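#onboarding

Welcome to the new folks! Below is a worked example of what a typical request in this channel looks like: someone posts a single protein sequence, and someone else replies with the predicted structure as tokens. Don't worry about understanding the tokens yet, we'll cover that in week two.

Example request:
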Amino acid sequence: MAAGSNQATPVATPAQAVAAATSLPAGADRILVASPVFGSLVGDYEPKAKALPALTNAKTVWLIRYLARTDNLPVVKTALVIDGPPDSLAGNVYAVTPEAVVKQ
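Example response:
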């Protein structure tokens, strides 16, 4: 974290992080939020993420909440993406499930 800064500075754009995490088209109206957070703080948003050093030790993690369907019902899902160059994003996607945070 830069001195006096409380905002994570990502490498990727929100659209690139969303595409890696959800495979949804650009401009999809199902995205609720795509926000960069410090890896050291990701557990404050998703407590199960505290168990994964890959997330907590990352400089920046994208927190993505989006609408999806499960059993034909709308649900809000969460994905965490370790920030980096666009070609690295797809290999650094984690899904938040009721049981744990799982690398995709």
